[in-house]
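This is your field. Please look over both lines of this record.
***
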Amino acid sequence: MTAAGSRRPVYLLLFATLVAAAGNGVTMVAFPWLVLQRNGSAVDAAIVAGAAALPLLVSTLLAGTAVDFLGRRRVSIVSDVLSGATAAGVPMLALTFGPASITVAALAVLAALGAVFDPAGLTARQSMLPEVAARAGWTLDRINGVYQAVFQAAYIAGPGIAGVLIAVLGGINAMWVTAAFFALSIAAMSVLRVEGAEPPSEENRPKGVWTGTVEGFRFVWDAKVLRTLAFIDLVLTGLYIPMESVLFPKYFADRDQPAQLGWVLMALSIGALVGALAYPILVRHLSRRRILLTSSLALAVCTLVISTLPPLGLILTSCALVGLMFGPIPPIYNYVMQTKSPPEMRGRVVGAMTTFSFAAGPLGLAIGGPLADVFGLRVTFLVLAIPMFALAVLSLWLRPLHELDSHEELAVETAPR
């Protein structure tokens, strides 16, 4: 096999990740903007954002078991088909019944339906990372860093495209872009061939949906480092999602500045892109625990700065730093999941860990939206920033985080760098 041929699965998987995440990046801006453009209510925007977040909690519970039972490639394709069809439903509804049919209730239903299928595709693609890395001769740190960088690159393109499309074509027509991105992801995954991508043998499948789901959560709970990381992710995500999904959209919607909203979201993604790309280099010189602790503390400090709602230039700088500090965190999480779980359970472990992250979304949105309407954006940003800082300090004394740098062999043969 040639070197180029051995890297083909990596390129296909990363491309599918790029376009699928970009499609989600468009909807991340378009759905709240359609609501805020309609009535300017942060509560209604939070309802729609929450409608997208709540199904994630339920579907993520089952996504890992579906991946381990049906196969990674198949689940990724089916997920993208369903997500793309749901995204296209927004402009199709407007074409069929008129723009007035795009109500808050309709947007909430469509956002919920679209979100149902996303976790399965994300879990399926993420579960294939060790195998495509082994085929290409990449280390786990390298594939995890590049994967996260590509994921963030998508969120540079997605919100940026969404901001331009909303300004030029309107939020409804921007949803056609989402459907097109999912179609490209389907095409890439359709031709990907790699070890472990097809349905597993009967003896390696979960015995049932509920049994497989419980096995994944039990595995995470029994591994102290995974349990600790899940708790940290739960808190940080619950505090961060309202900022990106409601507070920033409301701040710029009140000023009728969709392009500036796109700039802020792009600054977050550009910073995260640079941070993810830097991770494989940083981990050669610093421990994973030190990287995680430093990033968490810096995240909290930058969020405190943003809570003052400074001029746009300082907001953009702070958001870029937030992204930069966040960039190395997901690759560390991926590394731990990959080295702590056997291949036949990887989907369930990834699904269980992702569930903790998605579980925080509805709660954070339920708090962030009403707080913004009652007390204003500045107070709401501060209320979310303070516990983020407290968690960063507490993490200094969490002993399981020392396991981040335990060198365990992965049950997949990986070639040297």
Remarks:
- The CA atoms of residues 50 and 362 lie 5 Å apart.
- DSSP finds 15 helices and no strands in the chain.
